[in-house]
Design brief:
The protein is an all-alpha fold. It has one domain (9-183). 88% of the residues lie in helices and 0% in strands. It is built from 6 helices and no strands. The chain has helices at 2-32, 34-60, 66-88, 90-118, 125-144, 153-183.
């Protein structure tokens, strides 16, 4: 029993380590070539919109009332048209996605600043304030240079996220391996 667990754990941590390293490599590539990473991400979003259109269309014919069917068909058409447009105009889609992310970061920053104010007497509220300030600066950096920021923003943001996620996964996997070998 213990041997089977050890073998399964070794296999799982090996896969986790391999995927973590791939994540780090993908993050570095995205940071090194942010425009192409941004176009790739935009294409993925376009395909996800098309898939959503198909799913709405399928769901429409499973609905009951005529109004529900009509709304689902309209939603399918909107998703489909936007997805098709994004896929056929990746540059415009990337600029739109960049603008949407800048807006999202701006709203997130406002909410974090408000939360830090509400929690100002609590331990750790300063970190929320710092996060809100950095997020606001990032939103303004993207907006101030938009649409030119489309060339770098999405790729760098996703690349940094993938890089740090990969590093964190490597650290967690290493700790799991260390703990299980010490306990064995």
């Amino acid at each position: 029993m213990a041997q089977a667990f050890s073998t399964d754990l070794k296999r799982a941590t090996s896969w986790s380590m391999a995927l973590s390293v791939l994540m780090i490599i993908a993050g570095i590539l995205a940071i090194a070539a942010p425009y192409y990473a941004g176009l790739t991400i935009t294409a993925v979003v376009g395909w996800l919109l098309l898939i959503s259109a198909v799913l709405h269309l399928v769901y429409a014919f499973r609905g009951g009332r005529a109004t529900a069917v009509i709304w689902e068909i309209l939603l399918a058409a909107v998703y489909g048209l936007i997805g098709f447009y994004v896929l056929t105009n990746l540059g415009v889609g990337l600029a739109s996605l960049t603008f949407a992310i800048a807006f999202f970061l701006f709203v997130e920053a406002i909410l974090e600043l408000a939360l830090s104010y509400q929690l100002r007497n609590e331990s750790g509220a300063g970190w929320i304030l710092v996060d809100g300030i950095i997020t606001m600066i990032l939103a303004f950096l993207i907006w101030a240079n938009w649409p030119n920021s489309s060339v770098w923003a999405i790729g760098v943001i996703v690349g940094v996220s993938m890089l740090f996620s990969g590093i964190v996964r490597v650290m967690i996997t290493s700790n799991i391996r260390r703990i299980t070998t010490v306990g064995a």
